[in-house]
Design a protein that fits this description.
2 copies of one chain form a homodimer.
Chain A (H helix, E strand, L loop, with lengths): L2 H5 L5 E3 L8 H10 L3 E4 L5 H14 L4 E6 L8 H9 L2 H7 L17 H10 L3 E5 L5 H9 L3 E6 L2 H9 L4 E5 L5 E2 L18 H11 L4 E4 L5 H9 L4 E4 L13 H7 L7 E4 L7 E4 L2 H5 L14 H13 L22 H8 L5
Parallel strand pairs in A: 1-9, 2-3, 3-4, 4-5, 5-6, 6-8, 8-9
Antiparallel strand pairs in A: 7-11, 10-11
């Protein structure tokens, strides 16, 4: 069964929500092609989500997706935060920062009552969650708005758990995918990324395990990849990386440059930017801190330490401290409209 | 273009050579179905290869593949070997071993003059290499036997290098694949496994980069996976894991049990068994030594330390110290004939 009738869209393509590199412009452009445009809400205030949704509704009457994180808000551990900052002391010295003057970093708020109120007002066709699902009483109220509910599974166990919670479809997020891994079970084990599985292995095993539609994600970057995933039994695909150079994306200049360089072929999972494993193009900070660090504070607290360095380096045209989120397959990226990209992914335009 | 006419086989399926878990019985069974049966030679003496090839020729007139490793033979570093053994001291004490009495471990000889002589005698249709290619003067003599030459690429750079050396086809080995990674460029960097890419990402990028046939490998375990890889443009597929339970495989009892357990869903890349990164089902030794160890001596010297523990634990029915090689998708495994498995992979039988 295709996700197209389930979500009331024309094409079985979900644009992956990409917090920090897009707003409603990308959502709208994908919706106009007939795909499911997504708005990442985790780094927005409720008011900002409402404003973006008004823009979407003014531009299109197509279905769209609001995406939320549902991590457990961490308790601040001052010792751990201080120890983490100490790993950055040579950079602070070099760039002239006072470590004590560094702020808390960008907000990343889990889905809660305030965002539930937004969903009730907006009534999007689809609500997607990352890092599991919100508490049952919140989830039930989302369901009652009529929204279809989806979330990401990175293992068969996670897929089975999501199915048991009554989601309408599961995103099988293969480890090729860019940005944050959706993993949420067994995360106490220090995010053992060996649990993460490639799309060719994850998709068939999730399809065998569950009875609900499965959306394939990870490494799918062109029409041949979309066709292959659908032929394996996926009900749809979720594509992120291929949209990063699109004209409607808010991808930064250093990020765009990195995506177009030879270095884009080497990505890695790292937790040093936020505290959770996410895939990005390898850069100086990832190498210096060795990709996955046991010293990183819990998500999203780890982000504060690198934020000022990132800003200053970017102003100098360098991505040394920037999370350059990207999947393992950047070959589909193109500086075209996301409307055309969506049609291209379906093989409808070349 | 399909590999079937190139290799003079009926079905575009290469049975992955799996040193240690198969002999000519598996090769023959795959050849009988019309796939390319493979004989792994790296752990055999030249005489043993000749004997196995006689068995193949007596059983089938179909094309088959001889597979060789072509690693650089390492210099023994006594200090490093002693330090490595020290990591095993608690196991040795527990199982009653004298560390000084531990032998050099199984042979793993790179392709050289002796094996070249075997190839000249046997004249197989295909010769496949792992860990790059042998020196040019040896490779040229293999070519002159009329054998088609293939090798594995784990990155686009490796694929381009193999093409420049004149191979007839490239195996794009996605990171889902079981057993040893074929990686051979930049291996001085301590086998940074972040360079390894899932099949959904690797295959399209290799296809774009080279002009010769590409065989997809990694996570392909059933007819839907084979069809998807071919639809993406692969000229054929290489499948290993799905054959591990086949009646003609020599997979050990503990290995077979592990493949059928829930734990088979969790594999990891590890260098602790041989010194090179390879994918196997997570077991005690992998967890204890943390998967990838900077202390492991160069391939294949690391193998000696765990070999006696492995033998003793296996005799007690335990796989705690056994390399339980497997890919990330064990869902295709079945205790059927490899002839039937090959036909099943093509969707010709259910």
């Amino acid at each position: 069964m295709s996700i197209a009738p389930l979500f009331n869209i024309r094409l079985p393509i979900v644009q992956a929500p990409m917090a920090g590199v897009q707003d409603s412009d990308l959502t709208i452009a994908v919706c106009k092609a007939g795909g499911l445009g997504s708005l990442p809400c985790a780094m927005l205030t409720p008011q900002a989500v409402l404003t973006e949704c008004e823009k979407i509704r003014a531009a299109t009457d197509q279905a769209f997706n609001l995406n939320f994180f549902c991590h457990q808000p961490p308790l601040v551990d001052p010792d751990k935060s201080a120890a983490w900052k100490a790993h950055f002391s040579s950079y602070y010295a070099q760039w002239g920062f006072d470590p004590d003057g560094i702020g808390p970093g960008a907000i990343r708020v889990p889905f809660g009552e305030e965002m539930l109120a937004v969903v009730k007002l907006v009534r999007p066709a689809v609500v997607s969650f990352h890092f599991g699902l919100p508490p049952a009483h919140l989830l039930e109220q989302v369901r009652q708005t009529g929204a279809k509910i989806i979330s990401s599974a990175t293992t068969v166990q996670e897929a089975l758990w999501l199915q048991s919670q009554g989601v309408d479809a599961i995103i099988a997020q293969g480890l090729e995918a860019g940005g944050h891994r959706g993993l949420f079970l067994d995360t106490d084990a220090g995010y053992d990324v060996t649990s993460q599985v490639g799309t060719f292995a994850l998709l068939p095993q999730v399809l065998r395990a569950v009875d609900i539609p499965v959306i394939a994600a990870g490494g799918i970057a062109d029409a041949a990849g979309v066709k292959a995933a659908l032929s394996m039994g996926a009900a749809g695909v979720q594509v992120g990386t291929s949209y990063l150079l699109c004209t409607e994306a808010k991808t930064s200049a250093v990020h765009r440059a990195a995506l177009q360089g030879e270095g884009a072929r080497h990505t890695a999972l790292t937790n040093i930017f936020t505290g959770r494993p996410a895939r990005g193009i390898v850069n100086r900070l990832m190498k210096d801190l060795n990709y996955m660090s046991v010293h990183a504070p819990a998500f999203p607290l780890a982000a504060a330490a690198s934020a000022p360095l990132r800003a200053k380096a970017e102003a100098a045209g360098r991505g040394d401290f920037t999370p350059l989120w990207a999947g393992q397959n950047t070959s589909g990226c193109a500086a075209i409209s996301a409307t055309d990209m969506t049609l291209r992914l379906m093989g409808l335009v070349s």
